[in-house]
Amino acid sequence: MHAARYLANQEWVKNDSLKTVENTAIPIIMLVVEIPHDLTTSVASNLQSSKEEPSHMPGGQGSHVRTETGSLENSAPPKCVLINNDNSKDSKSVRIDISFKSPSHTGLQTTELVKELTEQFPAATPLALVLKQFLADRSLDQSYSGGLSSYCLVLLITRFLQHEHHLGRPINQKFGSLLMDFLYFFGNVFDPRQMRISVQGSGLYMNRERGYSIDPIHIDDPLFPTNNVGRNCFRIHQCIKAFSDAYSILENELTCFPTGGDSSLSPPYRLLPKIIPSIDL
């Protein structure tokens, strides 16, 4: 790609971070850029002030952090994620995925859908952020390498919250309990060979018809019902095992957690680093 060669020569692109993924439905350029701390602080302030007035700029697909970036001609808005493996005190590393407009590119449509789902189920946002980093630590967060894409993950979380709501359980508080329940269900109960997922209406877990599909997991695309967004997730069983292991670790930690004495005198006990070593608390 000409764009990739151009970006590789930019001084603000981290050495050896640029990677192109061309043999996919939507080719992407992946890179890490170095952003000065004073610029990230300025952007954060701008983002805070932008909440007070309507924005006319489209957001990136599945973005965790939106930054003011110049986009390449005919490119879709970049997906940006702050990462913390840079030890420099003067800059911060930001991972960016750039995709390009094409007839099959549904990035803006899925972004709007994800926005609607997270407004309907506010707990989906913290769960998605934690689980995305959880999968990233295990290199299971990219669909092109067989992992769960951000879109797939949001649909899984949405279906889980729909089911919890259907059972009459609270879904907008105690995010830790929701995380545990998600890890338990998708780590120990869910069988992708037997169960098909849809978030249409109030959501459904459906039986997969024998011989209907050889896809490793079937997750209906709400935008295009004939599209299975999980068809490339050939490492789904590794994801399931990771969820199951994480649940066991957290359950064991909670079992061993001391309950006696004055908890106000004890230092904070951090559980998430037990399953997400890279998390910054």
Outline of this structure?
The protein is built from eight helices and seven strands; from the N terminus they run αββαββααααβββαα.
Q: Quick one: biggest sheet? A: 4 strands, antiparallel
The total strand number stands at 7
Can you give the helix content as a percent range?
A: 25-40%
- Physical arrangement of strands within the biggest beta sheet: 1-2-4-3
Outline type: globular
Class derived from helix and strand content: alpha+beta
Helix and strand run: HEEHEEHHHHEEEHH
Question: Using only CA atoms, what is the Rg?
Answer: 20 Å
Number of helices: 8
Q: Unreliable segments (pLDDT under 50, ≥5 consecutive)?
A: 50-75
Strand content: 5-15%
Arithmetic mean pLDDT: 80
Q: Termini distance?
A: 38 Å
How are the secondary structure elements laid out?
Layout: H1 2-8, E1 19-21, E2 28-36, H2 37-50, E3 79-83, E4 91-99, H3 107-120, H4 124-136, H5 150-166, H6 175-189, E5 195-198, E6 204-207, E7 218-219, H7 236-256, H8 272-275
Word description of this protein:
With 281 residues, this protein is α+β, with helices and mostly antiparallel strands. Helices cover 37% and strands 13% of the residues. It contains 8 helices and 7 strands; from the N terminus they run αββαββααααβββαα. The strands form 2 sheets. Strands 1-2-4-3 form a 4-stranded antiparallel β-sheet. The protein has a 3-stranded mixed β-sheet with strand order 6-5-7, covered by helices on one side. A hairpin with a 5-residue loop joins strand 5 and strand 6. Helix 3 packs parallel to helix 5, helix 4 packs across helix 5 and helix 6 packs across helix 7. It is globular and about 55 Å long. The two termini are 38 Å apart.
